Amino acid sequence: NMLEEKIREDEKNKVKKTKERKDKKTFENLSINLININGLTQTKYAELEEMFLRKEKELNLVCLTETHLKQDKIRISKDITEINSKRDTDGRKGGGLMILHKENNSIKFEKVPNVEKEILEIEGKCMDLKIRTILVYFDARTTPEGKMRNLEIK
């Protein structure tokens, strides 16, 4: 019967499409983590990598604030992508933003150019999703200078 044959063909196609989707799927979970690292050191980086960037079936975007990095002094593993925004050496120790994720063909982010060092913006594709992530470091001072700085950042 033609109808039965059509139904069988449709079922085969559904199974095939489902299998293709499963083969494409690399990760089971996507997490975006925000951590005030209060000074990124090699030891803290090793802990972050172990906790968030080595899990097999997970993809973690790790967003760090207060890296306190003004030049490169942390050795990032070669299979980890690092995108950062560092303060100029202006005397203040705080600040510094960084986003980390493990290398994978299904992830492609680019840093959005920005003159403001207190904003780190990335956009791209992750597991076929268009994603834009904006990480902002606001001034914690309650002085008029701190409030004015936050208005500039906003």
Automatic annotation (TrEMBL):
Query: Gene3D superfamilies of this UniProt entry?
Result: Endonuclease/exonuclease/phosphatase
**First and last residue of the signal peptide:** none
InterPro entries the UniProt entry points to = Endo/exonu/phosph_ase_sf
* Domain of life of the source: Eukaryota
Q: Where is this region: Disordered?
A: 1-20
Which residue stretches does the UniProt record annotate as biased composition, category Basic and acidic residues? 1-13
Q: Protein name, please?
A: Endonuclease-reverse transcriptase
Species this protein is from:
Meganyctiphanes norvegica
Q: What is the lineage of its organism?
A: Eukaryota, Metazoa, Ecdysozoa, Arthropoda, Crustacea
